[in-house]
UniProtKB/TrEMBL annotation:
It holds the Pfam family PepSY_TM. This is PepSY-associated TM helix domain-containing protein. The chain crosses the membrane at residues 12-37, 154-177, 205-228, 350-371. It comes from Pontibacter anaerobius. Keywords: Membrane, Transmembrane, Transmembrane helix.
Length: 393
């Protein structure tokens, strides 16, 4: 009887955890792969909403005039405006419904988003489309398998925990028994039989993508379990998703002399680097204006600097630069882009897309390996005839 080794234990854990969670992980990884380039696909399907032709020697409409024009046309209050560094990009403008008589908020008072031509002020579209609806379904399938309530979220969360163990045990199993054969795990033997090719696809591609897959799994759990999110916050010494709870500074009421254009100019003075800019305008007179600025480009880090300004005179109240934050706060603030893959712009998206594609294939190649082993065990022994005797080998 063969000795039950530690390696055999890892192999059994890897096998049975993979069988139990394979279907869910296939769906989660496939939807994650599809979702990676959501923004690019939406722009490809509706380019007229995201890009405009830049007229010769033309300048964008002044922000003050643009806001006044939109508020009159859309019968609402502009609460945010996003200006991309690319001059051929449309502005993304958030407009809240106008308050009813007596200052009461309109029903369904959540701001609506409009894409606006910066050179004419014309509204060219909204985010709603068949493509955005498709990606919304993909996201719900990725997050909770389209199962309403906490059940779907728990199933995905538990499967993600299992996935973490699968990656870790897979790394252990990747190392060969004989150390001198470790190079074999770095390449796929394409001229071998399909069973060997399938094994190499599972083993080698799983190894190359393991780091990114671990990052995806460990960050993804922040959306599944509150206890995990709180634990990670304690370990890192910084609160995960802190930005969701943060509110702008409170200021004293006063006559307002500053304009949106003043806020933008002040923010550009405090944050002189080029980049995409988002201006958030408060509806009341006691809340600060917030301006966020982030880098743009193929390798751009998905982190933003933030300035809070006095709404009445555009004086700076607080300046938060990402580079000035401690390392633990930087890492925690990047949880979402680390999971989505845009942490380093398009460059990291490409890497994540490939890693997600590999992750989608792992349940398939792993199942084929298991089936092949079952067939091998059931295969009858060879019959060897030696004279009058018949021996089964």
């Amino acid at each position: 009887m063969k000795k039950y080794t530690l390696r055999k234990l890892f192999n059994d854990v890897h096998l049975w955890l993979g069988i139990v969670s394979g279907l869910v992980l296939f769906v989660v990884c496939l939807t994650g792969t599809i979702y990676t380039f959501r923004e690019e696909v939406e722009e490809l399907m509706s380019p007229e909403k995201y890009t405009v032709e830049v007229p010769a020697n033309a300048q964008p409409v002044a922000t003050n005039a643009l806001i006044a024009q939109l508020e009159q046309e859309l019968q609402g209050k502009v609460v945010s405006i996003s200006i991309l560094e690319d001059k051929s990009s449309t502005y993304s403008v958030g407009v809240a419904p106008a308050a009813k008589e007596g200052g009461k908020k309109a029903e369904g008072g959540r701001p609506a988003t409009y894409f606006v031509n910066p050179y004419t002020g014309q509204v060219v579209g909204t985010p709603e489309s068949a493509t955005s609806e498709f990606f919304g379904t993909v996201m719900r399938l990725h997050r909770w398998l389209l199962i309403e309530g906490d059940v779907g979220k728990i199933i995905v969360g538990v499967s993600t925990i299992i996935f973490t163990f699968l990656v870790l045990t897979g790394l252990v199993l990747w190392f060969p028994v004989k150390r001198k054969n470790w190079k074999q795990g770095l390449k796929i033997k394409t001229n071998a039989k399909w069973k060997r090719v399938n094994h190499d696809l599972h083993n080698t591609l799983g190894f190359y993508s393991s780091i990114l897959l671990l990052i995806m799994a460990l960050t993804g759990l922040c959306w599944s379990f509150e206890w995990y999110r709180d634990g990670l916050s304690s370990v890192m010494g910084a609160e995960v998703f802190k930005g969701r709870k943060e509110k702008p500074a409170t200021i004293a009421p006063a006559p307002t002399t500053a304009t949106p254009q003043d806020y933008i100019q002040q923010a550009n003075l405090l944050l002189p680097h080029a980049g995409d800019l988002r201006l958030s305008l408060p509806a009341d007179d006691t809340t600060a204006v917030v301006v966020q600025k982030s880098q743009a480009g193929f390798f751009a880090l998905a982190a933003s600097d933030k300035v809070q300004l006095n709404k009445h005179n555009a004086e700076p109240l607080k300046v938060e630069k990402f580079s000035d934050k401690p390392l633990n706060e930087q890492v925690v603030s990047l949880i979402k882009p680390l999971h989505l893959g845009n942490v380093y712009g398009t460059f990291s998206k490409i890497l994540y897309f490939i890693a997600c594609l590999i992750a989608t294939s792992l349940p398939v190649t792993g199942t084929l390996i298991w089936i092949n082993k079952l067939r091998k065990k059931k295969k009858p022994g060879r019959v060897i005839r030696t004279g009058a005797a018949t021996v089964a080998s």
